[in-house]
Amino acid sequence: xxxxxxxxxxxxxxxxxxxxxxxxxxxxxxxxxxxxxxxxxxxxxxxxxxxxxxxxxxxxxxxxxxxxxxxxxxxxxxxxxxxxxxxxxxxxxxxxxxxxxxxxxxxxxxxxxxxxxxxxxxxxxxxxxxxxxxxxxxxxxxxxxxxxxxxxxxxxxxxxxxxxxxxxxxxxxxxxxxxxxxxxxxxxxxxxxxxxxxxxxxxxxxxxxxxxxxxxxxxxxxxxxxxxxxxxxxxxxxxxxxxxxxxxxxxxxxxxxxxxxxxxxxxxxxxxxxxxxxxxxxxxxxxxxxxxxxxxxxxxxxxxxxxxxxxxxxxxxxxxxxxxxxxxxxxxxxxxxxxxxxxxxxxxxx
Length: 350
Description:
Helices cover 40% and strands 17% of the residues. It is α+β, with helices and mostly antiparallel strands. Helix 9 packs across helix 11 (176-190). It starts with a helix and ends with a strand.
């Protein structure tokens, strides 16, 4: 079988025509809807992201609506998706688009939007405007590394240049949208990370990894980030139907989201030392709740402190009616605390 760029593209496009995923953001050329889907689907499975995309499109059908929203409204709608900087960047970029009078239509101008890198700009540009720019993401790295037997690490400077150049060479200039989407779907469905469908693959005859029995070894990725463990201790302070909340500041995880009283944040376990002296009942709700982020593992203890008198809260904390908690955007870990506080299961009084 011919392994030329033209043949590779034609085989891939034929596969996509028969096997491509039907997704709502593929039924439009609206750059706002396409951009929204690309941002939501970063680090997110399509099944989960689909519901969020529909929710955002319902609440903010136009980029002007998103730009006019408050940060709290955006973060609340994003809650549960994680990687919250994406939501902040999305909000900032919406305002950039409105300020410039419309969605940018060139690759370089699209890249000027907050939070938009080469991949997202290429996806938006090719799908919405037909720009002949190849996308390169995890799926593309995997397909190209396996098919062409490339052992250069995908997260090295050399590897990034090599794969970007190869993807661009393979891209048919007349069908950039279809080719880019074909590469995404082929990597997700056919050439999957685990258990790829090699026996039924239309590119099997020209796949170097299959020929040399290296499918499981490719692509190669350098291990560069050490995962650290961080221990948190939260106390849900309750007094006559109110609780204490604090908005997290910039420079750490969950920027802009809300949290209850944080009494300890360290690599090692520590005692519960409340920042006020009032009588009350301290109850352990959950211990060592594990929550995994990209570069760290969180082990969290949850407590409930029911006050007999109203304490003065530390700077930055405020009293919030418990009935209004759903109006405050919180990380998934804190959602779990809300669920535990509301549940009737037995706890341990300290």
